[in-house]
Design a protein that fits this description.
By secondary structure, this protein is mainly α. It has a single domain (6-360), classed as Glycosyltransferase. The chain has helices at 6-24, 50-62, 65-71, 74-79, 93-108, 111-125, 150-153, 155-164, 168-184, 220-237, 240-255, 279-295, 298-319, 347-360; strands at 28-32, 38-41, 128-129, 134-135, 145-147, 194-197, 204-208, 345-346. The radius of gyration is 19 Å and the shape is globular.
């Protein structure tokens, strides 16, 4: 198996990201098909933060100011949605503001980044249902729904507790993680996507397959959100239950991988023949595994770091667009679900790939 110098991969990313800056012109990419052109979304969409997040990591790793300049205004544009007549912002403010306002403040000390990050944390905390001890996921009539994705969003609350000294944010994050652990993680480490509660009493009702194949299946990106989220929950709380949960999910994920270490879109398909992969799930899981490798005892570190590097090596060698300079994305073969964004490039796959490569290259400003 070939050995990859991850610092060299960071350098290979520079011309790719530079071309994207020129083509995107401040827009927010989401998915790209065979034509290699990213389709863009409005600034309120849940994936808004990932492109600026790539830019901030590139700035932090290279010191090249044009990355910071291109990322600078994203959190200001996002903030406008707090006062617009819309219900589009929801629990995914974590994804949106961690990789814009929070990282901006962390790297530069910007006061507006701090203010906007705390504004988003207050918004997320306000979605907490104390009866059921969960954070409401989506809007409209989904008052009692929580989803596995939010395990990454609660990092915003942990950050807010650290930066303000106010433990209330952390208390909400911990309660949500406990509820998800109880109802959303199976004994074997596989994960569920959507959990439904009675919003009045807090009683758990049922789970839904959501973006996975079925209620009994395991959506691979959902598993990656859980792995990443519980590793971070342990870092921020010191609760050994969260570390054990992160390990269980990691072991399930690693054991279920196909030969090239990049998962299909669901781990429990009846047949894998002709089914699409999800490079974004591999990138997210790899980044989470690298976090896990930092916090476990020395004898366990290589188990998780090695698995992360195998996934990232496969993504780099088999899923990258290095030989397609006109392609705007970094990774090919991502999948949103069995019915949406099938075999596409996805901006969150690109983000977590860049994040993971940066971690292997010595990046110090991990945003938990």
């Amino acid at each position: 198996m070939s050995v990859i110098c991850w610092q060299d991969v960071m350098k290979r990313l520079e011309p790719k990201v530079d071309r994207m800056i020129g083509r995107l012109q401040g827009k927010y990419p989401h998915d790209a098909g065979n034509d290699g052109k990213y389709n863009c979304m409005g600034s309120d969409y849940w994936t808004t933060g990932f492109w600026p997040g790539i830019l901030w990591i590139m700035y932090d790793m290279t010191g090249n100011k044009h990355y910071m300049d291109a990322a600078w205004n994203a959190d200001a544009e996002l903030e406008e949605w707090f006062v617009k007549p819309t219900e589009e912002l929801h629990h995914d403010v974590g994804f949106q503001f961690l990789s814009t306002a929070v990282i901006k403040h962390t790297i530069t000390g910007d006061a507006d980044g701090l203010r906007r990050g705390l504004e988003a944390a207050n918004f997320l905390a306000a979605r907490y249902n104390p009866a059921g001890q969960f954070i409401r996921a989506w809007n409209a009539d989904k008052h009692g729904w929580a989803i596995i994705d939010c395990m990454v969003n609660i990092s915003l609350l942990f950050w807010a507790s650290r930066i303000t000294g106010d433990p209330r944010y952390k208390h909400i994050a911990v309660r949500h993680a406990e509820t998800t652990m109880q109802h959303g993680i199976r004994n074997d480490g596989s994960t569920k996507h959507i959990l439904s509660f009675d919003p009045e009493t807090g009683e758990f009702i049922e789970s839904f397959g959501g973006q996975g194949l079925s209620v009994e299946s395991t959506w691979s990106r959902g598993a990656s959100w859980g792995l990443y989220g519980y590793a971070n929950a342990y870092v921020n709380s010191g609760d050994e239950r969260f570390l054990d949960t992160a390990k269980r999910i990691a072991h399930y994920f690693i054991a279920a991988l196909p030969e090239d270490h990049v998962p299909y879109w669901d781990f429990r398909l009846e047949s894998f023949e002709g089914q699409p992969r999800d490079s974004s799930a591999a990138a997210i899981a790899a980044s989470g595994l690298l976090d896990l490798a930092v916090i476990v005892p020395a004898g366990e570190k290589q188990l998780y770091k090695g698995a992360a590097e195998r996934m990232l090596r496969s993504l780099t060698e088999n899923y990258g667009t290095w030989d397609q300079p006109e392609h705007e994305a970094i990774l090919l073969h991502g999948t949103g679900s069995g019915t949406s964004y099938i075999d596409k490039s996805l901006i969150f796959g690109d983000y977590y790939y860049v994040e993971a490569v940066a971690k292997l290259s010595g990046w110090k400003h991990r945003i938990y």
